[in-house]
Specification:
The chain has eleven helices and no strands. By secondary structure, the protein is mostly helical. It folds into two domains: 1-120, Ankyrin repeat-containing domain (Serine Threonine Protein Phosphatase 5, Tetratricopeptide repeat); 122-196, Serine Threonine Protein Phosphatase 5, Tetratricopeptide repeat, CATH 1.25.40. Helix 4 (66-72) runs antiparallel to helix 5 and helix 10 (164-170) packs antiparallel against helix 11.
Length: 196
């Protein structure tokens, strides 16, 4: 991952930004808190200071926040601090419309469940119209599919690629297909990518 930096900050602050994002990635809460306070520069508004931090120099990660990074690295303590103490929005989006929950899907460490338990919307689509259930089905992440469905995710959201069942079938993820069918996914649903 490229070093996260913000283009609208001076070069003098770039090392501090890198350290904040690295502490979030490492789940080093004491260091993260200390760096947030330094970034706040005594204004007494750490939430605003951390909300201003966004990755801008990496096309794949544009708009990533500290919460995106913490969720993607299963940094549960930093996620808790951001959500419970700083009251950061669990559904904030990057430039692609992706939420931290989308990146928590790669880990079994409880970050996804934590975000869902603290109000993350499992029905939020990204800018391309795909839902988290599509991504979990595409990758065959059965634990995430089970978690999303247990937390009330709709089993048949439609994107340009069809439903999660279509996506799982296209990837040959039979375990994912079984879970979706066990939760009443519509096996008769058609999409333009599946022969009629």
């Amino acid at each position: 991952m490229a070093s996260p930096r913000s283009h609208d900050r001076s070069d003098v602050r770039d090392p501090l930004l890198d350290m904040v994002f690295q502490a979030a990635s490492d789940d080093n809460l004491p260091r993260f808190k200390a760096l947030v306070m330094m970034l706040d520069t005594g204004r007494g508004r750490p939430k605003e200071a951390i909300e201003e931090l966004r990755v801008e120099d990496d096309a794949k990660l544009q708009g990533f926040s500290a919460l995106h990074i913490a969720a993607s690295r299963c940094s549960l303590e930093v996620c808790r601090y951001l959500v419970e103490e700083l009251l950061i929005d669990v559904d904030l989006v990057d430039k692609e419309g992706r939420t931290p929950l989308l990146f928590a899907k790669y880990h079994n460490g409880g970050t996804a469940e934590y975000l869902l338990d603290h109000g993350a919307n499992p029905h939020k689509a990204n800018n391309d119209g795909a839902f988290l259930l599509h991504y979990a089905a595409e990758l065959g992440i059965c634990e995430m599919i089970e978690l999303l469905l247990a937390k009330g995710a709709y089993v048949d959201p439609v994107s340009a690629r069809g439903t999660p069942l279509h996506v799982a079938a296209g990837g040959g993820h039979y375990g994912a297909m079984k879970i979706l069918l066990d939760h009443n996914a519509d096996e008769k649903s058609r999409c333009r990518l599946v022969p009629q």
